[in-house]
Amino acid sequence: MKDTVKQILKQYGSDRNRLMDILIDIQEQLGYIPKDAIDLLAANLGMSQVDVEQTISFYHFFSTKPRGKYAIYLNDSAVARMFGYDSVKRTFESEAGIKFGQVSDDGLIGLFNTACMGMSDQEPAAIINNKVFTRLTPYRVREIVKHMREGKAVEELMNESYGDGKNQLPSLRSIVSSNVRRKGMILGDDYEMGTVTKTRLTKMSPEAVIAEMKHSHIRGRGGAGFPTGLKWEFCRRSKGDKRYVICNADEGEPGTFKDRVILTEKPELVFEGMAVAGYAIGSDEGILYLRYEYRYMKDYLNEVLENMRKQNLLGKEIAGIEGFDFDIRIQYGAGAYVCGEESALLESLEGKRGEPRDKPPFPVEKGYLGMPTIVNNVETFGTAVKIVLNGGEWFTQFGTEDSTGTKILSISGDCMFPGVYEVDWGFNVEDMLDMVGAWEVQAVQVGGPSGTLIGSKEFHRTLGYSDLSTGGSMIIFGPQRNLLKDVVLNFMHFFIEESCGSCSTCRNMTQVMTNKLTKILNGKGVKSDLDDLQSWAKTLQASRCGLGQTAANPIVSSLKNFRHLYEALLQKDKDFDQGFDMEASVQASCNYVGRVPNFNHH
Amino acid sequence: MSKPVIATTSLAGCFGCHMSILDIDERILQLFDLVEFNKSPIDDIKKFTKPVDIGIIEGGCCNSENVEVLKDFRKNCKILISLGECAIMGGLPALRNGIPVEECLHEAYIGGPTVQLNTKHILPNDDELPMLLDKVYPCHEIVKIDYYLPGCPPRADLIWDALVALITGDPLKLPYELIKFD
User: Fold this and answer.
1) Which of A23, A128, A260, A284 could hold A325 in an S-S bridge, CB 3.0 to 4.6 Å?
2) What percent of chain A is predicted at pLDDT more than 90?
């Protein structure tokens, strides 16, 4: 153990900012992070043990106990549950002879739940030792566990054909499908890698690049929609010895998987976009922050980077441009939704708990390691290449006035053709449902759990920053779904699980509101409960980050658009009912002191 | 128009919130001009003698008597206010909520390091005594509460502003600095 840890420490130069990489490597090589390793890390990184421990405890995929030779992480998202999670889970439990959250006595199999892992178009899915298994069925589960008992390697467990597109490449060999169903400027096949670097950047100043970005009016594709050109300009103007370009590939919003597809099919476009950004803001270092769920792409993406270096699209004096040095490395998360928030992501990059920072200062002033930093979404970088290629003016012809360009949607749920669709902004929901073959629709969750749940009355609305804003997640629910129980409650549990716990509003109110929702679902609700939910939701606005501020949205938007579902569950004859039962609540103490409860006395 | 009537009580609290009411200092004279007090430790009226407009509750419910008093307040008051951390969330007494009530009783009367005189291990079981609840409940989990004034204790100015706002019907000022998380 000691040698392994020391070797890993050496590999990262005993840099405490690389604690995440160090912990991931230890976890992968030893199967867990033993206590001795923590002591060793603390001593060698100049940190206290609790500092190391608090980083470990924050992330879902780190463990201080062995997780089994085969660690199985089964996705329990709302979409997974729609497509057979329950039977897959039961089969895993009966075949392995343990419950979820446990490791078998022989240390062979560990069963764990995990949040949405970006496979909503091919659920139920699980991660087994970093390999993704999709479209699981009880039969497949029995087969997989049987093969595990036979001691097969995890690659040998995969007997499905490889997925479509680049999933078949030797360095990827994944059974994941890309399901690209509609191509546009980003997913299209007409671009030759390096064209912008070699034919545009050579003739443009960094300021001119930023000017084109601003002219295009592109807004960030991660969901918040900040103007990208402005962000780059702010960063370029901020003082600092070094600047960083960070690509946010931590897509954790349940129902989103388009970044996975972009990185599978067009990784060179994203990396070139990062280099373009590096040229524009004056940075020589880029980091792709990739969610751990996509670790299976590691070799493939490193191969793409290596290939780009060989072609001088990364490295020193790129495309012969004097002073244009830029390279990219990949760093991984370890399972935390909140790390998609840019300042939490930076904390995680620095090896700490992924808790959002107080703002200001914003990352463009003080970001990674305190230096000016831009954090942009995968899709934004891909789009930037096309903007610089064709000009900002060209870009504005796509989409609408306030939402220019195209948007890549991750569409899942009750439809014939789940997958990834690149459409112009301004697309309306009705057209989208026709496009994906969804003919009987009760509701659509736009923008994931932190977005909006809409019903048929609002299907005329259009996708765009001024109407239905979305980072790309679209989940369709058919009439057979129980929206409150299967969707809203699931989303609330997701937020409870993923709150970083820093602000009391997000840490507590998600739980308190979920308790109330559960009470209503159990038939104990009264009308005032609905008023409470509505008014309590406002307190979440005091939270520090977007996760906290939107954590009540599943309840708020379903209350707004599906109030009748709540009202149908309320008790008609009561105005107030908190379920308090005096007789039951004094029973334990009376038994213990030896007296008979008496309620007529006082 | 007759003056609004106020009642107050302290349930499972420490009387700190009542102290904070007194902390409105000389404004208490103004308060007595504005309102009339009924059942309250402040004037030592033990039982409701007339319908009350505003009931102020300090403390949560840890025993059966607290529950009865609280229900009595709900019956007799048009508006009920939970005053302070204990009434709103259970407060310090609710620290026992994670521990089974049997263990709490054992610690207090039998096993605790400071239990010395109780050599016969007598447990409080007289029928006259209130019965201990399984945990400490915030007031709104027992009866409907209309308003909440947070703090431990709530600042005197907050109590004053809230009462004045209720009596005059003006909206309560809640500047961002007061409610911002950190």
Assistant:
1) A284
2) 93
With respect to residue B114, please indicate whether it lies within any of the assigned structural domains.
no
- Residue A295, phi then psi, degrees to nearest 5: -60, -25
Cα separation values, A78 from A83, A86, A509, A524, B27, Å: 9, 11, 21, 24, 56
Instruction: Tell me the pLDDT tens digit for each residue of B96-151.
Output: 999 999 999 999 999 998 888 888 889 999 999 999 999 999 999 999 999 999 99
Nearest to A565 by CA among A488, A492, A512: A488
Note whether B101 contacts A588, CB cutoff 8 Å.
yes
Residue B68: list chain A partners with CB under 8 A.
602
Q: What is the pLDDT of residues A125-151, one digit of tens each?
A: 999 999 999 999 999 999 999 999 999
**B181 contacts A543? CB cut-off 8 A:** yes
Superfamily of domain A182-395: NADH-ubiquinone oxidoreductase 51kDa subunit (3.40.50.11540)
Strand partners, B80: B55
* Cβ <8 Å between B130 and A602: yes
Residues 6+ away with beta carbon under 8 Å from B170:
B164
Cross-chain residue pair B131–A597, CB shorter than 8 Å: yes
Domain hosting residue B158, numbered range:
5-95+136-179
The answer to whether B96 contacts chain A (CB < 8 Å) is no
Cβ within 8 Å of residue A428, ≥6 positions away: A459, A460, A461, A462, A463
Estimate to the nearest angstrom the gap between the alpha carbon of A554 and the chain centroid: 17
Q: Do A593 and B180 touch (CB under 8 A)?
A: no
Q: What is the spatial distance between Cα A514 and Cα A518, in angstroms, rounded to a whole number?
A: 6
pLDDT at A579: 83
Please give, rounded to a whole number of angstroms, the shortest distance from the CA of A505 to a CA of chain B: 8
Q: What is the pLDDT of residues A26-41, one digit of tens each?
A: 999 999 999 999 999 9
Fold designation for A407-477: Ubiquitin-like (UB roll) (3.10.20)
Put simply, whether A564 touches B (Cβ < 8 Å) is: no
Q: Residue B169: which pLDDT band, with cuts at 50, 70 and 90?
A: confident
Task: Supply the CATH number for residue B166's domain.
Answer: 3.40.50.700
Query: pLDDT class for B182, splitting at 50, 70, 90?
Result: low
The partner residue sitting opposite B125, judged by closest CB among A504, A544, A595, is: A595
The answer to whether the complex's ipTM is over 0.95 is no
Verify cis geometry, omega within 30 degrees of 0, for the bond prior to A360.
yes
pLDDT in tens, A55-103: 999 999 999 999 999 999 999 999 999 999 999 999 999 999 999 999 9
d(CA A14, CA A84) in angstroms, rounded, equals: 45
Which CATH topology does A494-567 take?
de novo design (two linked rop proteins) (1.20.1440)
Residue B102 lies in a domain: no
pLDDT at A214 over 90: yes
Residues 497-516 of A with CB under 8 A from B: 503-505
Percentage helix, strand, coil for chain A under 3-state DSSP, each rounded to 5: 45, 15, 40
Residue ranges covered by each domain of chain A: 2-58, 70-160, 182-395, 407-477, 494-567
| Structure tokens that stand for B155 in this block | 């600042």
Q: Does A599 touch chain B (CB under 8 A)?
A: yes
**Beta carbons of A595 and B131 less than 8 Å apart:** yes
Q: DSSP for B24-60?
A: TTTHHHHHHHH-EE-SBTTTTB-S--S-EEEEEEESB
Residue type, B174: L
Q: How far apart are CA A460 and CA A430, in angstroms?
A: 6
Indicate the number of domains in chain B. Answer: 1
* A76 CB-contact burial (10 Å; exposed 0-12 / middle 13-18 / buried 19+): buried
For A70-160, CATH gives: 3.40.30.10
For residue A260, give every residue at least 6 positions away whose Cβ sits within 8 Å of its Cβ, in sequence order, or none: A118, A119, A176, A251, A294
Q: What is the pLDDT of residue B2?
A: 83
Is B115 part of a structural domain of the chain? no
